[in-house]
Design a protein that fits this description.
Helix 2 links the parallel strand 1 and strand 2. The strands form two sheets. An eight-stranded parallel β-barrel has the order 1-2-3-4-5-6-7-8, surrounded by four helices. A two-stranded antiparallel ribbon has the order 9-10. It is about 45% helix and about 15% strand.
Length: about 300
C-alpha cells in the first residue's frame, strides 16, 4: 500500500466486530454462564427490561459476579443498567464503580436517554475505561438525535442502540415486515451516528421462530449501514453474524480495490476500473473498512 492507503487502512485496525449484540437477562445465572460460549460479538448483560423489580438486586449481584469471574474471551461486555430516574439505576452504577478495574465491562448501556444533560451526567459517573452506550427509543431522542450524537466529542458516548419496541409503542406504530413506520427514525439515528463517528446497532427482531424474517431484517439493517443488530435469543446469532459479515466475494473485491489504488502506476489516480467496475476513491475507503471488519471478525474467532 502507498502511504495514503496505509493511513486509511490503519484507521480501522482497532475496529471491533459488532455484528451481533445479544441481550442476556441478569437474573438468569445459567444464561450468564452459557454466554461464555456463544458466538456473539457483544453481550448485553441486562438489568433493565429482562429483570422483574423484585429480582433487580439479585441480578445486579449475579452480573457483577460473572464479570469478576471473567472467561468471556474477546466478546465485548456491556451492562444495561436501569434508568437513573428509577429506584435501581443509582445502585447499578455504584456496583459497577466498585468492581476491580480488570473486571469492569467495556461499556454501560443506558435506557430512555433523550437529552445531552443525561449523557454528560452518566459520563461523569462512569469509571475510567468504561464507555457509554445509549438506547435510542423515544420520540424525544429522535427529535434530539443530532445533539445527542454531537455529545460524543466531549463525553464517553460511543454507541447508539435502537430500541425499536419502545419507539414503536410511543409512536403507536405497528411493527410490520419492512418496518416502514420506523424507517425515518432509524435513518435519522444512523445518519447522526455516522456524522459524529458513533457505532450504531439496529433494534431487536421479536419472532424467535421466524428465521427468514430475522434474516430479512438483518439484511435491511446491513443495507442501511448499521454495524450490527441487537438480539433476544441465541438461536438468532448465526443468521445475524452471517448477514453482517462481509462475504468471501466482497472481501476479494475489496482486496482488489485496495491493491489497485496502492499500485505505483496508479498513484494520484482518482478513478479506476477494477474487475470491470468503475471505482473511485470513496470505494477504496469503503473497501478498506470492509477488510478491517473481516480482519476483526477473524481475530475474534481466533481468540485474539
Amino acid at each position: 500500500m502507498n502511504e495514503q492507503n496505509n493511513q486509511q487502512h490503519s484507521g480501522f485496525l482497532a475496529m471491533r466486530p459488532r455484528r451481533s449484540a445479544l441481550y442476556m437477562p441478569g437474573a438468569n445465572a445459567r444464561a450468564l454462564e452459557k454466554a461464555r460460549n456463544l458466538d456473539a460479538d457483544c453481550l448485553l448483560l441486562d438489568l433493565e427490561d429482562a429483570v422483574a423489580p423484585d429480582a433487580k438486586a439479585e441480578a445486579r449481584g449475579q452480573i457483577c459476579a460473572a464479570l469478576m469471574q471473567g472467561g468471556y474471551g474477546q466478546r465485548e461486555l456491556v451492562v444495561r443498567i436501569n434508568a437513573l430516574s428509577t429506584p435501581w439505576g443509582g445502585d447499578d452504577l455504584a456496583a459497577l464503580q466498585q468492581l476491580d478495574p480488570a473486571a469492569r465491562p467495556d461499556a454501560i448501556l443506558a435506557p430512555k436517554i433523550s437529552s445531552c444533560e443525561e449523557v454528560y451526567t452518566l459520563s461523569q459517573a462512569l469509571p475510567d475505561g468504561v464507555d457509554l452506550w445509549i438506547m435510542v427509543e423515544t420520540p424525544a431522542a429522535i427529535f434530539n438525535i443530532q445533539a445527542l450524537a454531537a455529545c460524543a466529542g466531549d463525553s464517553k458516548l460511543r454507541c447508539f442502540v435502537m430500541g425499536t419496541n419502545d419507539l414503536a409503542k410511543d409512536m403507536q406504530a405497528n411493527l410490520v415486515p419492512g418496518r416502514a413506520p420506523l424507517m425515518t427514525a432509524l435513518a435519522m439515528a444512523l445518519m447522526a451516528a455516522r456524522q459524529y463517528g458513533l457505532v450504531a446497532l439496529d433494534g431487536v427482531f421479536n419472532d424467535i421462530a421466524d428465521e427468514a424474517g430475522l434474516r430479512d431484517e438483518c439484511q435491511q439493517g446491513a443495507d442501511m449501514g448499521f454495524d450490527g443488530k441487537t438480539l433476544i435469543h441465541p438461536s438468532q446469532l448465526a443468521a445475524c453474524n452471517d448477514v453482517f459479515a462481509p462475504s468471501a466475494e466482497e472481501i476479494a473485491q475489496a482486496r482488489d480495490i485496495v491493491a489497485a489504488f496502492a499500485a505505483p502506476e496508479n498513484a494520484g489516480v482518482g478513478v479506476l476500473k477494477v474487475n470491470g467496475k468503475m471505482t473511485e476513491l470513496l470505494h477504496r475507503d469503503s473497501a478498506a473498512r470492509r477488510l478491517a471488519i473481516a480482519e476483526a471478525i477473524a481475530a475474534r474467532r481466533e481468540g485474539r
